[in-house]
Amino acid sequence: MKHPFPASASRLLPEYQHVAVGDLICDGPGYASYFRVLRVDPVHAVVYRSIRHPRRGSPIDITNPASSQRSEQQLREAGTYIDFTWALVLNELPGHRARLLVRTRANYSPPAIKVLSLPLGLFDATYGVAMLRAIARRAEGATSAGT
Prior knowledge:
By secondary structure, this protein is of the alpha+beta class.
């Protein structure tokens, strides 16, 4: 059986290093979940935002810019969604080093589903640690390769 997601690259891929405000980044099959790029400060920071239902995805047509806006509006009107951001900020340190900071924020609607914040927070923390380790491996590999 073919896995629905391709394996992550083992190195930094130059063709994926340029994102722009408004770009959509897939976070599930068929763009059922996705992140929209809110801010890009090359070499320093990127901020992503996602509005999604807490249990099910809402696939969109990425060739139609109105599709994601319509999906987000439907979620807001239905009143059950999680609206969250991920900010990844790179701070330079002495000795040609850097520290990557990750900050997440979330709003829940209706407020009663905030009870999901603990299990979702644990999932995000687990996923976040794995993501940071993978980023470190790629970045350290690029540094040792001289790229």
